[in-house]
Amino acid sequence: MGKGTENMDIRGIDHIELYVGDARQAAFYFSTAVGFQICGQGGPETGLTGQRSLLLCHGDIRLLLTSGLSAEHPAARYVQRHGDGIAVVAVEVGDVAQAYAELVGRGATGVTPPTTLTGADAEVVTAEVEGFADVRHRLVQRTGSRSDFLPGVITPTPFAADEGKPVLAEVDHLAVCVPPGELDETVRHFEGLFDFAQIFEEHIEVDGQGMNSKVVQSPSGQVTVVLLEPDRARRPGQIDAFLDQHAGGGVQHLGLRTDDIVAAVESLGRRGVRFAGTPASYYDALEARVGRVDAPLERLRELGVLVDLRPRRAAVADLRRVDARAPHALPGADRAARGEWFRQRQHQGAVRGQGAGTCRRGGRASGGGCVSLTPEEQALLPSDDDVRHYAEHGWYLSKKVFTDDEVDALAAAAQRYYDGERDRRLPVRPPKLAYWEPSKGPVQRHNDYVHHEHDGLGAILRKPLLGAVAARLAEADEIRVFQSTLIYKPPISGEPSNIVPWHFDKHYWASSSSEKMLTAFIPFHDCGEEMGTITMVDGSHRWKEIGADDTVVRHFADRDRNQLEEMLAENAAYNGAEIRKVPMVIPKGHVSFHHCRTYHGSGPNVSGRPRQAVSLHLQDGDNAWREYPLSDGSLAAYNHDVLVRRTHDGRPDYADPDYCPVIWRHRAPQGG
Question: What region holds the VOC domain (predicted)?
Answer without folding.
Answer: 12-142, 170-306
